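Q: Given only this backbone (291 positions), what sequence would you predict?
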């Protein structure tokens, strides 16, 4: 499984994915990466959650396609006029492209959340930046703790209201009161944690780790393949003419062997974890069938 790889591999991989997504501004690339991110998340989440994600992506794309022409009126192809301002086809297409980028970044953020734990982040940044590692550890622990505490306080305060059907005003006041109580609790908890860490001598000596990760040959092979695919994609992208022109007229670049190779390499870079997941499951099913 990809989650068993060295934490440094995870950091390099997701950082590289973000850089490639920002530098290679071609609509096919985010579409391809959305596909691979959904396939990758399908190895960890239920089918119902995947369906909700796909539906959310569809809503986001529709929203961006509708909203961007209302904000930006650039473009030569006028569809219609609204309040005296032109709604153009180019603005709608660019809104769809922005929606693809946002969807891809959100999905890869979900992949990162499935793979990277607080222990792995602390392992990567703990020696060089111990104070930052402490902040990251506290934040990742505090978010679910904050949500759980807020739900407990909200439920308790709702019982004290003694109303079977509270009005919207009652719900608003209840939410504000719950937020105030949770914020007060969080500040006290943060101070207690800071005092506890200080009394235990955090930061005085070299940091130790609960988990020890070893960089193996498998990690080296993965890193080599990913870096090779990513660097070749960037080198081929330079002066390739694959940049899509959205304004003033939408122009799709000519398709050739070089552009095909760029798309294939970028897909390989994004799809390596899913390929490894499928390979591990096939091997597991093969040995399981022989039992």
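A: Predicted residues:
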């Amino acid at each position: 499984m990809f989650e068993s790889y060295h934490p440094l591999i995870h950091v390099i991989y997701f950082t590289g994915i973000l850089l490639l997504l920002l530098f290679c501004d071609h609509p096919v690339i985010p579409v391809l990466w959305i596909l691979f991110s959904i396939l990758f998340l399908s190895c960890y989440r239920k089918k119902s959650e995947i369906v909700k994600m796909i539906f959310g992506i569809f809503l986001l794309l529709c929203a961006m396609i509708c909203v961007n022409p209302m904000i930006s009126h650039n473009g030569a192809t006028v569809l219609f006029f609204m309040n005296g301002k032109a709604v153009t086809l180019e603005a709608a297409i660019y809104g769809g492209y922005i929606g693809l980028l946002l969807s891809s970044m959100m999905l890869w953020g979900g992949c990162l959340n499935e793979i990277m734990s607080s222990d792995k982040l602390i392992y990567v940044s703990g020696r060089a930046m111990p104070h930052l590692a402490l902040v990251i550890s506290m934040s990742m622990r505090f978010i679910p703790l904050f949500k759980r505490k807020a739900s407990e306080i909200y439920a308790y305060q709702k019982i004290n209201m003694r109303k079977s059907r509270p009005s919207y005003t009652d719900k608003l006041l209840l939410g504000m009161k719950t937020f105030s109580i949770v914020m007060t609790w969080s500040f006290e908890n943060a101070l207690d944690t800071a005092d506890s860490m200080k009394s235990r001598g955090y930061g005085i000596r070299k940091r130790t780790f609960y988990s020890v990760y070893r960089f193996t040959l498998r990690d080296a092979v993965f890193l080599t393949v990913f870096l090779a695919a990513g660097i070749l994609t960037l080198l081929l992208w330079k002066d390739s003419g694959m940049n899509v022109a959205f304004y003033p007229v939408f122009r799709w670049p000519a398709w050739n062997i070089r552009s095909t190779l760029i798309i294939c390499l970028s897909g390989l870079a994004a799809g390596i974890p899913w390929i490894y997941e499928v390979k591990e499951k096939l091997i597991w099913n093969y040995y399981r069938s022989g039992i």
